[in-house]
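STRUCTURE REQUEST FORM
Protein name: tRNA-uridine aminocarboxypropyltransferase
Source organism: Shewanella litorisediminis
Requested output: structure tokens
Priority: standard
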Amino acid sequence: MSRDFCVKCHFPIRVCLCNAISPVAAHTRVWVLQHPSEVDHGKNSARLLPLILDTARIFVGESEADFTPLRQQLKAENLAPVLVYPADDGEVFSLPSVGGQPESRVLLLLDGTWRKALKMYHLNPWLHSLPKLAFTPDSPSAYRIRKASRSDSLSTLEAAACALAQLEPGLDIRPMLQCFDAMISRRLEAMPEAVRQRYLTDPERETD
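Status: completed
Returned output:
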């Protein structure tokens, strides 16, 4: 049976997020390299970013060839990409080392499960030489409807918000996190009671 979708936020009508979306005027561009398996995933957080940030774009792919248009645009516009990546695998990024205007900076985020994101990283050697922004979350992820394999994992939206907060200290990222919370709450409310209780009470719930 097909579901009706909101024409504005593109979420199913029963979990429409239009009244939870407040624009955030970031200067830094936020580009997501999204694994194909995440495109239609109902619990994916990256899909919220273009609804909140005018600077956000999503590029779907996995291999180096898939992201050729992204790389061409980086070069054509002389942009300064920074990869958001875990600290134990990446070089810790120093804010003073970022040159140019905020409008020339691009945050790149890998969107997928940890296993798939790691595969994407290895399939794209051009990412390895980029400056990396790594940080330790102040608190655990609020992603109650998906389980991560790492205790320090954040959703793509949470990672984007944390990264923007570091690059643009005066930026109010609360609307991003509030929209994320609304997505989670509405997904939980739409679940059958037995399923919802498993998500609320079982910290070891499975995810995909």
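Reviewer notes: The chain has one domain: 18-92+100-136+151-191. The CA atoms of residues 26 and 168 lie 8 Å apart.
Form closed.
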